[in-house]
Write a structure and sequence with these properties.
Elements: H1 3-25, H2 35-53, H3 62-81, H4 85-91, H5 93-109, H6 111-131, H7 133-138, H8 149-152, H9 172-189, H10 193-209, H11 213-229, H12 231-238, H13 247-269, H14 271-282, H15 293-311, H16 314-319, H17 326-332, H18 346-378, H19 384-399, H20 409-422
Helix pairs in contact: 1-2, 1-20, 2-5, 3-4, 3-18, 5-20, 6-9, 9-10, 9-11, 9-19, 10-13, 11-19, 18-19, 19-20
Length: 437
Amino acid sequence: MDLGIISSKLWLNIGVILLVFIGAILRIYSLTHKVYYMTLLILCFYLVVMIINFYKHKIINKYFLLIFLPTLLFLVISSLIHHTLNIFVKFYIVEYLIVSYIYLSILKYGKLYVSLLSKCMTYMLNIFSIFNIYQVVFHKPMLYDFLTSEIQTLQYQVSTSFYRTSSVFGHAIVAGLFFVILFLHNFFTLKNKIFKYILQGIVLINLYSTMSRSAWLAFLVVIFILILINFKKINLIAFASFSNLSYRQILYTYLGVIIIAIGVLFIAQNYNSLLESIINRFGDSLSDNSTDLSNLQRTGTITAIFKFMSDVGMKNLIFGNGLGTVANFMLSHQIVIPDFLTTDNQYLTWYYEFGICGIFLVSLFFFMLIHHLIKFFMNKSYDWTQVLSVSCLIVLCIGMFFFEGIQWETVGVFLAINLGCILPVTNQNNINTGGKL
């Protein structure tokens, strides 16, 4: 098979996923609100073509089938029973399309596919990170007038010093999670140290500017995990001989030390104000007598839903109340904030809508993450793309304790991309499909 043909098909394959992600981002703008659905049609077309070409060559792993098919069947049946198939198509079908597409792509192209996709995502997210500095300085989205009215209402404290940046994602919490994800991508994919230090510095500034407590928590957790995984490597690097470095490496290291020193001096000079703003942001949210409005809303919702599920019939407890029904529950059970239609907790929503069965299926996902983490801790060598994908999934999982992530297309798309990247593949070698897509 001609190498040029393989390369062009590979890049086209990656381009489809990037296009869907861009389409998800464009959802927050009034002029491009419908572009997302066009990208899904393109994804469906290429997925059908891939399935047809794989018909004679397919190698479907049993773990993939055990997780993929039951969840898909469960969601479709639940949607049909409760007449909410439109909600399934709007918020959930994209996950299954992308996971299938990624899985088949890895079967065809091997680990190279994940590596190149991760690098492309790194470059794209860094562009968004750099442009977010505009929001940091001017406290307003660059294209504010083109945002949909729904997204504009989420831009709290616009043009004030209390503004929380949201980049191109429309919400500070979502943006904060993607800045943590970008930090991980830069850590694993960027080779030029000087650019890595600069870009990571911009990421940290942006992460702080979102004022997202869940993103800060996710950042600390994944950094702790990475330190544990790379503990031996960190020791080896720390004691590496300086004489083995090239002049270019010495220059990059010297410039990196200068940049870090400037950053440390800035933090030291503004330490009290930074620390005070972080403390004020968390406030008394961890206290039993909390007066934090968002904390009261979340804890009150948890209490209300658990009480409701304990009193509901066995059928609803096991199978849930139906996809998309939690909004009606929130409308009829005001907690603190009037007309607040979400639980601000994806797992709580799944529990209400899908019952114990839904929580069981989610637990399979957590089991897979734990299984990968154990492998990383036990093995001296590991695939960096797997560690990156698992780390990104952990970030999203932590974030979804604080908002309904599936309702944000960018979160759903990225969740599916990384889930597809960590599914066990029977054959890591490329599969010859006659040079077709």
